[in-house]
Design brief:
heterodimer, A: 275 residues, alpha/beta, Rossmann fold, five-stranded parallel sheet, two-stranded antiparallel sheet, 10 helices, B: 313 residues, 2 domains, seven-stranded mixed sheet, five-stranded mixed sheet, 13 helices, 43% helix, transferase (chain B), 1-deoxy-D-xylulose-5-phosphate synthase activity (chain B), Transketo_C/PFOR_II (chain B)
């Protein structure tokens, strides 16, 4: 299945529920990972992988594929859950996450995982990669698109702003950036660590088309991807307002769940909530 | 002796490669006139991308081109590209094993009068610690052309070190060139001089001087610093029993260190490293700066006499 599957919103919602269960079980079994920032990104990755990206699970290196780069590499379990749901590997493989010989390392690795095109984990690097892939697609006369997901805390990295200039300068309308704006980072609330100020205004000032949405509203997400694709001669950024830990009552909007694995008891409660 | 600037050969060969292979793209960080990539830009403007003064971004953009199947040559001054872009090279190029050709310009004392901010003497060390990146520094313009061609054909990341000022031709068109294969330019019995880049000519000059003193020096052109051609180096050193290395780079972590690490484990012999001795440079013209920093044929000759003396003790 190369084209997106065009799942209905109720089907997408069911995939998101399964992805959240995968994420919790993976981080629980691995006794590590970043469930908070995975759960905030889940609905965005759900729509992207189910209905937007043209990729071929049977041929991950298909030369006409759309590209997705997870710049906030610590959300790897969410990416693996999406790749699994799209058919890149079987569900049982998810639970090898973070094991020494696993194809699913703690942070994405293109050398290990089918469907992953770039290593990440060292923050700030993904938008530059997307620009390069998008420029190459334009050079080939191909309609391939490059998507990249950035964390909000990740926007502290200077390279992102260098790359934002590049995308706009080359009018890369085949680049779509997604900011998972969950407003929490490792040391605390983003506004307390280092505020991003007027974030949409900053992207606009860099000549980007800005789409601001609720990152957990599936119809809004789907519409934003369609709008981004329709804009010509300008890159688009989807600033998705999200909730860290979304879907698990005791994890929602809690800094402590940035990097912490659920215990046996916590997993049980979480899975019960996501039944 | 004819002298040609390595960067001139680099820029011209890039154009020839561009004609032959439509997948080659060239990225520059606002130094196209210095790197000579403007020649490529004039010929293939649609395949030339100026990323501006953004060395971290140029590395990532190059990696993105590679993901999409292109062969990117990314260009900037070596210290800015490898310094600002090191973490991007670390993850997006080396760990991700992307087919990016990293080209560091103005290496060593190239821009001598500009002083320490513009003099890359640490770049080999920065690249040596990254798994999977090949490091190449040709000895002259003829070898530069062969190296650029070989770099394009090589599947995988590579760091190419390009000097700005004319250096003497020490190789010939018909000499074979293979990445990873050191070349013995002069055979000898008493000492092995291992040199790279502009220091190869000085190694040969030192060997002449040493011959008049009755010392027979073997001179090896180590154009590929990583991976090391261990076989050729060990065979030579097992014959001569003494080594002097010479590079336009700090002696810490560079080519001489790589050779020393090999020899101390496999065949310990007296060894001296000619290079920058853990100090910053000063503002001085190229030749004068080489004299100040001890990057000279005379320094190689003196080092040879030292290692031979040690062997006799």
């Amino acid at each position: 299945m190369i084209q997106g599957k065009s799942l209905s919103h109720s089907e997408l919602s069911e995939v998101a529920r399964r992805m959240r269960r995968h994420i919790l079980k993976m981080t629980h079994k691995a006794k590590g990972g970043h469930p908070g920032g995975c759960l905030s990104a889940t609905d965005l990755l759900d729509v992207l992988y189910m209905n937007v990206l043209r990729v071929d699970p049977q041929n991950p290196h298909w030369d006409k594929r759309d590209f997705f780069f997870l710049s906030k590499g610590h959300a790897a379990p969410a990416l693996y859950a999406a790749l699994c749901e799209r058919g890149f590997f079987p569900e049982e493989e998810l639970f090898t996450f973070r094991e020494a010989e696993s194809r699913l390392p703690a942070y994405p690795s293109c050398e290990s995982t089918p469907g992953v095109d770039m290593a990440s984990g060292s923050l700030g690097q993904g938008l530059s990669i997307a620009n390069g892939a998008a420029l190459a697609a334009k050079l080939k006369g191909s309609d391939q698109r490059a998507y990249v997901m950035l964390g909000d805390g990740e926007l502290h990295e200077g390279q992102v702003w260098e790359a934002m200039l590049t995308t706009a300068h080359y009018h890369l309308d085949n680049v779509c950036a997604i900011v998972d704006y969950n407003k929490l980072q490792l040391d605390g609330r983003l506004d307390e660590v280092k505020s991003l100020g007027d974030l949409p205004g900053k992207w606009r000032a860099f000549d980007w088309n800005v789409l601001e949405i609720d990152g957990h509203d599936l119809p809004q997400i789907e519409k934003a991807f369609a709008q981004a694709q329709a804009v010509k001669l300008q890159p688009s950024v989807i600033i998705a307002h999200t909730i860290k830990g979304k879907g698990v009552s005791f994890m929602e909007d809690q800094v402590d769940w940035h990097a912490a694995a659920p215990s046996d008891a916590e997993l049980k409660i979480a899975l019960e909530e996501l039944k | 002796m004819t002298k040609i600037a390595p960067r001139q050969a680099y820029g011209e060969e890039l154009v020839r490669l561009g004609q032959e292979n439509p997948d080659i793209v060239v990225l520059d960080a606002d130094v196209a006139k210095a790197s000579m990539t403007y020649l490529f830009k004039e010929k293939f403007p649609e395949r030339f991308f100026d990323l501006g003064i953004s060395e971290s971004d140029i590395v990532g953009t190059g990696a993105g081109f590679a993901v999409a199947g292109k062969i990117p040559f990314i260009n900037a001054y070596a210290n800015f590209l490898l310094g600002n872009g090191w973490e991007q090279i670390h993850i997006s190029v080396a760990y991700a094993n992307q087919n990016v050709k990293i080209v560091g310009h103005n290496i060593g004392a190239s821009s001598g009068k500009d002083g320490p901010t513009h003099l890359p003497f640490e770049d080999i060390a920065l690249m040596r610690v990254l798994p999977g990146i090949m490091i190449v520094e040709p000895a002259d313009a003829i070898e530069m052309r062969k190296a650029v061609r070989a770099a394009a054909q090589h599947q995988g990341p590579i760091y190419l070190r390009v000097g700005r000022l004319p250096v003497p031709l020490v190789t010939c068109e018909e000499d074979p060139f293979e990445l990873g294969k050191a070349r013995i330019l002069r055979e000898g019995q008493d000492v092995t001089i291992i040199a790279t880049g502009a220091m190869v000519a000085k190694g040969l000059e030192a060997a002449e001087e040493l011959a008049s003193l009755g010392i027979s020096a073997e001179v090896i052109n180590l154009h590929t610093i990583k991976p090391l051609d261990e076989e050729t180096l060990l065979r030579s050193v097992q014959k001569t029993g003494a080594v002097v290395t010479a590079e336009e780079h700090t002696i810490l972590g560079g080519m001489g260190s790589a050779v020393a690490e090999l020899l101390v484990e496999e065949f310990p012999v007296p060894l001296q490293r000619v290079g920058v001795k853990d100090r910053f440079a000063v503002c001085a013209p190229y030749d004068e700066l080489h004299n100040i920093l001890g990057l000279t044929a005379k320094a190689i000759t003196q080092s040879v006499q030292r290692v031979i003396r040690k062997n006799r003790q």
